[in-house]
Design brief:
The protein is mostly helical. It has five helices and no strands.
């Protein structure tokens, strides 16, 4: 933990407004420290330094990417409606999803529920 003290100190100042110099006092008890430590955001310096749960995006960024994916799919479907009503070709190219951190493209298209859950960053466990 000593190797990551500067990262922890920076995180506690940035996220909680607490200085680790007060650790062990009434201002920052060990119990409070432990409770706050396990709740550090995924983007914290400490978690990146120790290689723990790291997510380059926070929830609003994931929601923005999902919204953009939805808008692109909607545009594509509107183009498909034009095709259904006589257009020779869909004027909108099929959209690729916004690349998410930790989900590198493999070059092959995956289908089904696993692909859907993987796209949204959810792990699906095999049954049986």
């Amino acid at each position: 933990m000593r190797a990551h003290t500067p990262d922890l100190d920076a995180d506690f100042l940035h996220h909680y407004g607490l200085d680790l110099a007060h650790l062990g006092t009434r201002r920052l008890t060990w119990a409070r420290f432990a409770g706050l430590l396990v709740r550090l955001p995924a983007q914290s310096r400490s978690l990146r330094a120790i290689g723990g749960r790291v997510d380059d995006w926070d929830a609003p960024t994931h929601l923005a990417a999902a919204s953009l994916d939805t808008a692109r799919q909607t545009n594509y479907l509107i183009g498909a409606l034009l095709t259904a009503h006589g257009a020779k070709k869909n004027p909108v190219t099929k959209p690729d999803p916004v690349p998410r951190p930790g989900h590198e493209a493999t070059g092959r298209k995956r289908r089904g529920f696993r692909a859907l859950f993987s796209h949204y960053g959810t792990h699906v466990r095999s049954i049986g």
